[in-house]
Amino acid sequence: xxxxxxxxxxxxxPDNKVxxxxxxxxxxxxxxxxxxxxxxxxxxVLEHVLEGSEKPSKLPYxxxxxxxxxxxxxxxxxxxxxxxxxxxxxxxxxxxxxxxxLNISDVIFxxxxxxxxxxxxPNIIRFxxxxxxxxxxxLVMDGEVTTAEKWERLLCFEYLSNGNxxxxxxxxxxxLEWHTRYQIIKGICEGLSYLHKEKFIVHMDLKPASILLxxxxxxxxxxxxxxxxxxxxxxITLISQPTGGxxxxxxxxxxxEINFGGSITSRKVDIYSLGVIIIELVTGxxxxxxxxxxxLRRWEQRWNGSSKCTPLRHQVxxxxxxxxxxxxxxxxxxxxxxxxxxxxxxxxxxANAYR
Length: 355
Known about the structure:
This is non-specific serine/threonine protein kinase. The chain is of the alpha+beta class. Helix content is about 40%, strand content about 15%.
């Protein structure tokens, strides 16, 4: 293999961000490409998607190998029912390696890809590209190295530095300030309203782990295609109907009707989950507080008698009331996401007027 200096001579002058980002990488990580010009072309496409000058598209498998250092443990940042997550060497991308055992059909996979490609909103994770291809893998059998073909499916998203919301949940006396929590609640509602109203997408597994936060603590909903993939595949397991080996999506955030044959594709399923998340953001606990005034007193203790807390008191109580309406056992009596946004905006206007 040629050394790095001889490879980079094939490139245009190093004024492109792609070249700058990858110049320092070790030469051996280029082994998946026969020529560095191929790498440069593929990276340039991803760079343009990041910049917004190109739309998300299908990307070659070797590119994903490269930006994850061949899916190394050092790059692994988590996993869920769909697969493993890796942080890219570009620092601004994350890659999901879909579990091969899910055996997702091409029709279902590309149907979900289409939805993710068209979902564009400040409170929805940015989808950057995907791979659905047969890749060769080296296997050692009886001491001899052989190759085998394996179907690989990969998803590429923006990487958000502050992780998921579950890492930032705390009680009233510690952690995030009230203003930040309020803006996170509002952002989640905005993203959910967009999915429900504009894209006709039901998340079906909304929880703090599926809400990521950027540098400014702006929430972005992710994983909204996972539950639908499982539903189409017919491998969703409900707690009341356990079947060995299947995926379980039931959680403390799931609506009660899921256990009783209700529609799991109703938007009101997500609204129930939203209610639990709001309570958890306000109090640090998933359980509905028995006395709202106790929560308020703890917030007032944190505000330490500040004159600014008068409109904030109303926001705390009203958020708990909205959450309670989301948890109504009758799905038809739960509000829509846009109804909650209206109430949240009204409280912001009242707080501004008070100042």
